[in-house]
Write a structure and sequence with these properties.
heterodimer, A: 185 residues, globular, B: 413 residues, alpha+beta, Methylamine Dehydrogenase, Chain H, 2 domains, five-stranded mixed beta sheet, 15% helix
Chain lengths: 185, 413
């Protein structure tokens, strides 16, 4: 089956997805594959994460604006909110993250900043749903790549959570081991 | 002991800081800490919930708030009419409708990618076809009633046998959404346009693409001239391009609209081209010169679709402002203003013999409107008798003989 060439609106969405995946990759790799700490790419990605994240937001805005114009999306209709819920929520999350991606926000929001930026993990699953739902039965050349990428990121995230859960389950046990009363002299 | 228990009671039941400062202080601190933790834990969830609530609120308010509804005071001297029948069956927005020349069949397509076939008289849904993998934005029926053509966001144009509903051809070539399709009057050619900025001409018999014309902007609408000599297209740049099929002449571009041209329709006599735009304007162009005969602010919002009465005297316009208006094409007078849809109307169609007028909307319904007598004062003075173009008598669709003078007019093709 020949896949269609992706139009500009889809290409922008694809670039946004790539950038978004790149922002998640350093942390995921550090926890899932600790040996990658030594390599240069995760370090570079970590350094450029803010810029890449903003790029993801800008591409997503371009994708959204083009589609709103092309498809005549009517926001005065309640059905629109439900039909495009994944895309709208993801764009809202990207907007929040992009707006607070500066030193001033980090300083002002303190620990809330970290909590706020946890939303990026919600966007991961929304994006998977978005690509599957909107491209179902009408794949372009970038659709399989998008699905593989976001699928990998989802998988790495689940793996990471499993490692973290296992680690936190081990920690109290280890603590209790170390806290065993020693024989009195 | 008693003193101790009194002290304990006081500690437990009083909130006065002076009464038990030592016990209340830490408790207060721990509560605020818990709240703070709760807040920080729930912050992302709260933000998403608030965003969704805002989104729903913004979407719901315009549809329920009375001031957003079209006011009947806008009507002026024009009459307001209600639909005579409503077809419900689509599960999402209805983007396109077409009526067969014999008035018996109505075809609709929408966001769900399905084509629904309706019996006009009974309103019964005869069949549903899963036609495309994405939304259907354009439908057209040939003048002989043999072919149905659909254009979709899945980049495909499909030709169907209207009687058997079998798929005859799939035209693949567009690289983006197909926004508009049309069939030539002789039923041999299909033209399609879309957001890949091309107009493509396909031959039904061979299933091959014959011509591709590049346009400077997204193509939103197109139509064949009734004589089949030209394909006219309108786009997001506000221009109307007239492409001759018989010669290699450079296409003409008619400039007049300030915003995107959403819809164009040839009058059945071929003398006038009507166009509707995103700025709510409706223009009548003289053929072949391209001179604007009339221009009027027809709607508050985008003019989404146009259809001519078979005798070329009346023009029906639909809009995203949820209204349908009937105009006298000669005088520009507003004759009727129909309200009934709750959401934007995307398509309006009159069958080629004028017996049926239908509209499709985002409210997931198709409405049939009474083919009433659209007689203006000017007409009656001019002719001395009512110009009964459409008449509904005793529940049967009767066509007066005067319509026959134009033969079988174009169904927006």
């Amino acid at each position: 089956m020949a896949l269609d060439v992706a139009p500009l609106s889809n290409q922008l969405g694809f670039f946004s997805l790539i950038c978004y995946c790149l922002t998640l990759l350093p942390t995921l790799l550090r926890i899932v594959f600790p040996q990658t700490k030594q390599t240069e790419i995760p370090k570079w990605l970590l350094l450029q994460r803010r810029l890449i994240g903003i790029l993801a937001f800008l591409f997503a805005v371009g994708h959204g604006v083009l589609l709103i114009k092309k498809r005549n999306i009517d926001f005065s209709d309640v059905t629109t909110a439900w039909v495009y819920i994944q895309g709208i929520c993801t764009l809202l999350i990207f907007t929040l993250l992009a707006v607070t991606s500066n030193d001033w926000s980090v300083k002002k929001l303190k620990k809330h900043w970290k909590q706020l930026h946890q939303l990026t993990y919600l966007a991961m699953f929304l994006l998977t749903w978005h690509v599957l739902d909107k491209m179902m039965g009408h794949w372009t050349q970038v659709t399989p790549i998008s699905l593989i990428l976001i699928g990998l990121i989802d998988g790495l995230f689940i793996w990471r959570r499993w490692i973290e859960c296992r680690g936190s389950a081990k920690t109290p046990a280890a603590q209790s081991m170390s806290a065993k009363p020693t024989k009195p002299n | 002991m008693l003193q101790n228990s009194k002290l304990l009671n006081r500690k437990l039941f009083t909130h006065s800081p002076s009464a038990a400062p030592a016990t209340l202080k830490p408790r207060k601190k721990s509560t605020s800490l818990r709240n703070c933790k709760l807040l920080s834990y729930k912050l992302p969830v709260n933000l998403v919930s608030a965003a969704i609530a805002t989104l729903i609120g913004v979407s719901v308010v315009p549809s329920v708030w009375p001031s957003y509804q079209t006011s009947s005071s806008d009507l002026g001297m024009a009459e307001s009419r209600r639909p005579i029948n409503t077809f419900q069956g689509h599960s999402s927005w209805v983007y396109a409708i077409a009526v067969s020349p014999d008035d018996k069949t109505l075809v609709s397509g929408g966001y769900d990618g399905q084509i629904k076939i309706w019996d006009v008289r009974s309103g019964v849904l005869r069949q549903t076809i899963k036609a495309h993998t994405d939304a259907i934005e354009a439908l057209a029926i040939s003048l002989d009633g043999r072919f149905l053509v659909s254009g979709s966001w899945d980049n495909q144009v499909k030709v169907w046998d209207l009687k058997t509903l079998q798929e005859l051809e799939t035209f693949e070539g567009h690289r983006d959404d197909v926004k508009t399709v049309a069939i030539s009057a002789d039923g041999k050619w299909v033209a399609s346009g879309g957001t890949d900025r091309t107009v493509r001409l396909w031959q039904i018999e061979t299933g091959q693409e014959r011509f591709t014309w590049r346009r400077p902007a997204w193509v939103k609408t197109l139509a064949f001239s009734p004589d089949g000599a030209q394909v006219v297209s309108g786009g997001y740049d506000g221009g109307i391009t007239v492409q001759s099929l018989n010669s290699e002449r450079i296409p003409q571009t008619w400039i007049g609209h300030k915003k995107a041209v959403w819809t164009i329709a040839f009058s059945p006599n071929g003398q006038t081209l009507a166009s509707g735009s995103a700025d709510g304007a409706l223009k009548l162009w003289q053929r072949p010169t391209g001179v604007i005969q009339k221009s009027f602010a027809a709607h508050n919002k985008t003019v989404s679709s146009l259809a001519w009465s078979p005798d070329s005297r009346y023009l029906v316009s639909s809009s995203t402002d949820k209204s349908i208006k009937v105009w006298n094409a000669h005088t520009g007078e507003l004759l009727n203003h129909w309200i009934g849809h709750r959401k934007p109307i995307w398509s309006v169609a009159i069958s080629s013999n004028g017996g049926v007028l239908a509209s499709g909307s985002s409210d997931q319904t198709i409405k049939l409107w009474s083919p009433f007598e659209t007689r203006s004062s000017a007409d009656s003075t001019e002719q001395g008798k009512p110009s009964s173009i459409w008449a509904l008598r005793k529940g049967r669709w009767n066509l007066p003989g005067s319509i026959q003078q134009y033969g079988r007019p174009s169904n927006g093709c």
